[in-house]
Amino acid sequence: MIRAVEWKEGRVRILDQTKLPGETTYIDCEKVEQVAQAIRDLCVRGAPAIGITAAYGMALAAQTSALSSPSLFQKEIEEAGALLAATRPTAINLFTAINRMKKIMEDQKGHPIPSQRRALLAEANAILNEDIDANRTIGRLGSALIAFGDGILTYCNTGALATGGYGTALGIIRSAWEQEKRIAVYVCETRPVLQGARLTAWELHREKIPVVLITDSMAGTIMRLGKIRRCIVGADRIATNGDVANKIGTYTIAVLAREHNIPFYVAAPTSTIDLGIASGDQIPIEERDRSEVTDIGGKTFAPEGVAVSNLAFDITPAEYIQAIITEKGIFRPDQIQGLKPSV
Ligand code: MRU
Fold this sequence. Notes:
- It contains ten helices and 16 strands.
- By secondary structure, it is an alpha/beta fold.
- The strands form four sheets. A seven-stranded mixed sheet has the order 6-5-4-7-10-15-16.
- Strand 5, helix 7 and strand 6 form a beta-alpha-beta unit.
- The chain is globular, with a radius of gyration of 20 Å.
- The two termini are 25 Å apart.
């Protein structure tokens, strides 16, 4: 199984996703600043994966701290947490993971520094392992919704690369394939950063799961042609009312799915649920650099100086979503408010 991030010999090893599928290279982070930069630059991306990476970033700050005063040590780790929290605003998993690490620091107050280091690393490992377990369960539960021979449309990348391992929406697809359901997966390229073309197509293709890559603008036509029986996407944050933030373009897919009477499912661990906000309107949406839109492969295609809008995520209102598949079960969006996230 591909690992987006791991703790290796006292460092945080990140698979550089900006280089995939052409090159498999790793960034061995020795400092928390490198971890923050890797998250900002999308070397590691996907809601659960950035949460796990941030947790390891804080464990790294603890390992590398030269401070001998426990209170100054704690301050340094807190600053590392603040640095990591400022990298990307939309995925709640980032903040949930950082808060879990802060809670460990709180519990460890007054303990010797080596014990604090051990406890922080153990918590980061737990966040990773819980995510893998959640994905396996999501895969098993969600695959019950998939019928033999289904054409499935997915968006962005929700696979092993976006999580601790196995994946959410892609975990369901993997699980259905393991059950020999003979599915066909249609993957939108996912402009502007091409997570679908570069990452999802790569994950599926290397496992020999039948995949057809399409342009984002082909989604409506492929539905109209009757090739799609379900849409399954991931989430970066789910609000109390069941509205979902996910990669820009997800909303378009949901509207098209409804027009064509195709069920639209969201797969996410409960760590993606934010019961602190009432609706999707309150989810902060990241706006990224204009060059992601104007350039492809380092070459500029748009006229110099043209105005650009590059919102990285959109909100799909709950009314478009048939079901939210979590490790705790399959829910209608209006049932999310009664769910208590496990972290
Ligand atoms: O900008 P990205 O690549 O981090 O966006 C990722 C997505 O939108 C995924 O669909 C989402 O994080 C779910 S990953 C299991």
